[in-house]
Amino acid sequence: EKKSSKSTSWTIEDFEIGNLLGRGRFGYVYCGREKQTRFVVALKILFKAQLKNSKMEQQVKREIEIQSNLKHPNILRLYGFFHDEQRIYLLLEYAPGGELYRRMQTEKVLRESEAAGVNIRFYFLYVEIDDIYIKPENILIGKYSILKLADFGWSAESTSTCKRTTLCGTLDYLPPEMLNGNGYDEKIDLWCLGVLTYEMIIGKPPFDSQTQHETIRMIRSIELTFPTGTSPDLRDLITKLLRRNPADRLPLKDVAQHAWIVKNADITAIEESYVKRKKTL
Ligand SMILES: Cc1cc(Cn2cc(-c3c(Cl)cnc4nc(-c5cn(C)nc5C)[nH]c34)cn2)no1
Question: What's the CA gap between 109 and 143, in Å, rounded?
């Protein structure tokens, strides 16, 4: 990199600003290009005033610390950051495929290999960090369709409407233990993986319904139905993830060995990249 990623080196003058890619409560994301190297980035611009009003400065500092130290093929890179009087600028990896949930809305159903790829990729990711919260709004489609977890859930939600068409969308990923106000642990990610896989292949969340009340009832009673033609392997995997008792959910190491994953995900390529990355750490 031409300059170190210390916050005092870059200025906005070093970048050409392109299209607006997204907006959120605290700022915008633009496509940007560094003038010297012509390197393309996603330039997230956050307004200090808005962050101050919502007491979010600490949250931003925490995100910057976490994300700048994480280097994983499934996590959106944070290359550096800088600030001026009014704004904080984050230099993020540009994901050419855009947001997964938008792709799921337009294309409804993704290929089984892509969805299997999500599972296995998030298996490796899960081994790395514990507090991941998997839902389509937090996932971008990077180069070569590699999925990237971009933890901008806190800054992206725009005040006007939720990303999903209905408020129900935000309930679809909640596991029973969270609905019942019981304690919960990392096994909520196994539940989310089951919901995400179902939605990616079948085109709608498993407990999708007209009202929030009905969605909550279906989650609590685990009212799980599959369209005819759903492969038995996929049914089996999802049924083993969407279990009421977190202890009964299929552990991630067994997800990676499950018949549906083995048949659909290009595990060797992903494992090779994972092993190589391990070596470079
Ligand atoms: C504020 C605020 C908004 C958001 C949500 N958000 C993330 C992006 C984004 C990022 Cl961070 C990185 N790469 C992206 N690529 C796209 C994109 C590409 N195409 C073809 N279409 C889009 C859209 N968006 C990216 C944008 N908004 N987070 O904080």
Answer: 20
Range from 63-72, 104-113, 195-204 that averages highest in pLDDT: 195-204
Q: What is the ipTM of this complex?
A: 0.96
Q: Which atom of ligand 1 is nearest to the CA of 155?
A: 29
In angstroms, the CA 171 to CA 227 distance is 21
Could you tell me the pTM of the whole model? 0.70
Q: What atom in ligand 1 is closest to the CA of residue 102?
A: 23
Ligand 1 pocket test target in 44, 45, 74 with most atoms within 8 Å of CB: 44
Please, are residues 223 and 244 in contact by the beta-carbon 8 Å criterion? no
Ligand 1: residues within 6 Å at CB?
21-24, 27-29, 42, 44, 92, 94-96, 98-99, 140, 150, 152, 155-156
Which tokens go with 100? 């997964």
| Rounded Cα gap, residues 88 and 83, in angstroms | 4
CA distance linking residue 135 with residue 270, whole number of Å: 21
What DSSP character marks residue 103? H
Q: Which two tokens stand for residue 14?
A: 């070093």
Of 203 and 207, the structure prediction assigns the larger pLDDT to 207
CA dist 30 and 20 (Å) reads 4
Tokens of 126: 């899960």
| CA 229 to each of CA 196, 224, 226: distance values in angstroms, whole numbers, following the listed order | 19, 15, 8
- By the 8 A CB rule, do 39 and 33 touch? yes
67-98 pLDDT per residue, tens = 787 777 778 899 999 999 999 999 999 999 99
- Using the predicted structure, report yes or no on whether residue 31 has a pLDDT greater than 80: yes
Beta bridge partners, 45, equal 28, 89
More confident residue, 151 or 194: 194
